[in-house]
Amino acid sequence: MSSQYTNKVFANLETNFSILVLLLAFGLSGCQPPHESEVSGDVQGTPYQIRFLLSGTSTSLEEVRRQVTAELAEIDAQMSSYREDSEISRINRLNRVTWLPVSKEIAGLLGIARTVSERTGGCYDLTLEPLLDLWKVAQRANKTPDQEEINALLPHVGMSLLEVDVINQRIRKRDPKLKIDFSSILQGYTVGVLARLMEALGIRNYLVDIGGQVMVRGHKANGDDWHVGIETPNPLTHELENIIYVREKSGTAIMTAGTYLKDYEERDNDYPLIINPNTGRPVVHDLRSVTVMHDDPAWGDAWDTALLCVGEKEAARIAEEEHLKALLIYDDKGKLDTHTSSAFEATQ
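Structure (tokenized):
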């Protein structure tokens, strides 16, 4: 997954490292078929768009727009690290090691993050904010952080320092300085919330897109399947690398994360701000982007960033082990190549 939300897991993938997924729902011309409705705007520092068919429902476009706005406001009030009055900001200010009550939504996301972190050797982490801030300051000064600076922050970073009790909706910091940021999972979670809203309103054919993180169900207005194009991970071009044909009518999320848009440069070295929480330094490998298809957008959003962190070989292994529908695009001696998991291949 560059915004008021400060880190798309190992750093602002939402904007600074966004994958720029091109939606081909209605062709490149941008023309919309008849009887299609749309709600759009900006959220979490990135554009969002919802396309849907109202036929067969008693819901009005105005009601959809009203409820979407209300849902987005509620998410912002809970999980925005930009707002001082949000629930997560209040939790981050509490320098305690006792159990803290949290909303069921926050408990649920932390439960997902804990599982994905454990299954990737700790390479997925929602507590990286201090390290991200350090590297961003260094970026502005055109230098690399000293190892001593990194070492000073590492003891206060790590999902292992956070206990999560999902059932009783509470958490406990083992380090009072620990801070939580949802940017690496928030867009996926929000996509899921809006998709569930469509379902609650009786809408069965829709596409929800937030910053290139997508969930679709049913079909387009002309009856065709939804198509989602994955852009070639090259900041200088806008060519399509793959087109995903979504034939699962019950709903599918398509989440993408990438490293190819560089956010930090010093001399001849590129430092994409995708921080490995085990080292406190940017990851170094040839994996350029990861796309994960998943029934749950929040899980898909966590997995795409986690796989991006571990690199192409480990990502391929984990995708098979976890039965993930994953598309990996990586650099092979200067040329882009792709790897698809068995589960992904079965969908195409």
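The first helix runs from residue 61 to 79. Residues 1-34, 261-272 have pLDDT under 50 and may be disordered.
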